[in-house]
Design brief:
Elements (H helix, E strand, L loop, with lengths): L1 H23 L6 H16 L6 E2 L2 E2 L6 H13 L3 H26 L2 H12 L2 H6 L5 H22 L2 H18 L2 H17 L2 H4 L3 H24 L1 H17 L11 H9 L4 H17 L5 H19 L11 H16 L4 H29 L5 H20 L3 H29 L3 H11 L7 E4 L5 H5 L5 E3 L2 H8 L5 E5 H8 L5 E9 L7 H4 L9 E8 L5
Parallel strand pairs: 3-4, 3-5
Antiparallel strand pairs: 1-2, 5-7, 6-7
Helix pairs in contact: 1-19, 2-3, 3-4, 4-5, 4-7, 4-16, 5-16, 7-8, 7-9, 8-9, 8-11, 9-15, 11-12, 14-16, 15-16, 17-18, 17-19, 18-19
């Protein structure tokens, strides 16, 4: 009976995690996800799933897999946020299962479960399972590749070899050659540690490379057709190298950028994760038989981590494919914590309890302060945490199980609150949302909406009818001469347009904030209005006016 109760409570905890993910599917798009959604919609509407384009221009920054997944949802269910996110979400969540299998293979069943638990309930996963980047898909493909290659190195079965290179191919079909780096270094370091140089130089790896080239051939064909040899050079060399040098994107020179981000990426497990990871690394120096696969995973991550740290192009989402792999290594040591007597782990447990209390305080503050609401809603969420965790503590006497359960419940309720209350409210300040509300509410069914000098690509995805992008002043003149034209633009272009003497009917002022640029000034209700920028929706006079 007690076992059934325990399973029931854990099922409720995982249901809360799933609900947090689920409601994240309905949150509006922003930044890169808005761009990817616009590309996916235009791909579906054109019927051309091979030649990726944005507003008629060939797109070369990312390969095809993410857009095929997103486009499949749009094709089946229409232009909605959840339809765009559905298949990338399912692919991304599969990475949690691959993490479990990798941890189980390298360490134990328990380690696999702990690794999957840490990765799947990390703040990094909660964030990028509503704000979708290609890294959401990339991490699953990379973990699949390393899991299957580890199976092959362990069991020498060819099906694992083939699936390992399928994983590499899918990773490269998601984000280019960076998807092959971790699997490559994992195999290289493992074979060097085993001193298996014969296998290291075996020609079978050439077959794997050829198999990968077959998988990524649609992207190579698209780049060749659209950009010629420069497209292939961009894919294999310039795109990744340009991010390191800052030639294409980024100007950061902070070598500790990813160390800072790693601390929040693993929340609420940061303390336990760092302790376990450190313990596992230390054990390699005195253990009679250190885990070579664990060492190989960590060292492969370390190589790419160093490259990322010195690169000028930096973004938090780049860390996502590290999270499941580092969780596997940490879980190799964490399993022993569950077996230790309490007096050895009191400090760790108390530190984790303090972490959970801080998260609960943040939940209340974000509800009561940011939303300027009464305290009832955040209190109800906090009551759910107290009731569910309290009841579990009564039926399970194991301190570690209590701590693990409470941690999952706290982070699930916290992210459920964010995804249903806080984030949807903050996203209402996005400019494109307000512009579409004005445009679609003013009997504009037969009119065309133009976008001028704004990169709010969510506009192109969320509009009921296609939005036309103005790329040159000549196009603007042509559009503004038409009666009843609607143009969405920024403050500078708005001022220039008004000086040109067009017949303007109405100008709608839009106070907005991009969600990729959130500040404390914006979060504070008292100063929020000062953090907002101006966009404008301009309507020319109709012929009847």
């Amino acid at each position: 009976m007690n076992r059934i109760l325990l399973y029931t409570f854990w099922s409720l905890a995982f249901l809360l995690v799933f609900l947090a993910w689920f409601f994240g599917l309905f949150i509006d798009l922003t930044g890169d996800s808005g761009l990817y959604a616009a590309i996916s919609r235009q791909m579906v509407e054109s019927g051309d799933w091979l030649n990726l384009k944005i507003n008629g221009e060939p797109y070369d920054q990312k390969p095809h897999l993410f857009f095929w997944l997103a486009g499949s949802g749009i094709q089946l269910f229409g232009n909605t946020n959840w339809a765009f996110k559905l298949f990338p979400f399912l692919f991304g969540v599969s990475g949690i299962y691959f993490t479990y299998r990798l941890g189980k293979l390298i360490y134990s069943e328990l380690s696999g479960k702990l690794a999957a638990l840490i990765a799947g309930t990390s703040q990094m996963f909660f964030l990028y399972l509503f704000d979708f980047h290609t890294d959401t898909v990339l991490q699953a493909a990379v973990v699949l590749a390393i899991w299957q290659l580890a199976e092959y190195l362990e069991k020498k079965k060819w099906q694992h070899f083939v699936l390992g290179f399928v994983g590499i191919g899918l990773a490269m079909l998601t984000k280019g050659p960076v998807g092959a780096i971790l699997p490559f270094f994992f195999v290289l370091i493992y074979l060097i540690l085993k001193k298996d140089f014969r296998q290291l130089f075996h020609p079978k790896w050439i077959l794997g490379i050829l198999w990968v080239l077959v998988i990524i051939s649609p992207s190579l064909y698209h780049l060749w057709q659209s950009f010629g040899a420069e497209g292939l050079r961009f894919y294999f060399i310039d795109n990744n190298l340009g991010r390191v040098t800052g030639e294409f994107v980024g100007t950061s020179t902070d070598p500790f950028y990813y160390l800072y981000n790693l601390l929040w990426a693993f929340l609420p497990w940061t303390i336990i994760f760092l302790s376990a990871l450190g313990g596992e690394i230390i054990s390699w120096f005195y253990a009679p038989k250190p885990n070579k696969m664990g060492i190989s995973i960590f060292c492969s991550v370390l190589v790419l981590f160093v490259v990322y740290s010195i690169a000028r192009g930096k973004a938090p989402n780049y860390l996502m494919m590290f999270v499941p792999l580092l969780a596997v290594v940490a879980a190799g040591r964490m399993k022993y914590y569950l077996l230790w007597p309490s007096f050895l782990t009191n400090r760790l447990i108390y530190s984790q309890i303090l972490m959970l209390l801080l998260i609960c305080a943040l939940l209340f503050i974000s509800g009561y302060y940011i939303l300027v609401s009464d305290f009832i809603v955040p209190v109800l969420f906090l009551a759910g945490i107290v009731v569910l965790s309290g009841l579990y503590i009564v039926i399970d006497r194991d301190r570690w199980n209590r701590l693990l359960f409470s941690t999952v419940v706290v982070t699930a309720f916290f992210n459920l609150f964010l995804n249903t209350q806080v984030i949807p409210f903050l996203f209402t300040y996005q400019g494109h949302t307000q512009a579409l509300e004005y445009f679609e509410a003013h009997d504009s069914a037969e009119k065309t909406l133009y976008n001028f000098d704004l990169e709010e690509y969510e506009l192109f995805f969320n509009a009921k009818d296609s939005v036309r992008n103005i790329a040159a002043w000549e196009q603007l003149y042509e559009a503004m001469e038409k009666p009843g034209t609607w143009v969405y633009t920024n403050e500078r272009k708005h001022d220039e347009i008004l000086d040109m003497g067009f017949k303007i009917d109405t100008v709608y002022e839009i106070r907005q904030r991009g969600m990729n640029n959130i500040s404390f000034e914006f979060l504070d209700p008292l100063t929020r209005r000062y953090s907002l920028d101006f966009n404008f929706l301009i309507k020319t006079k109709d012929e009847s006016d």
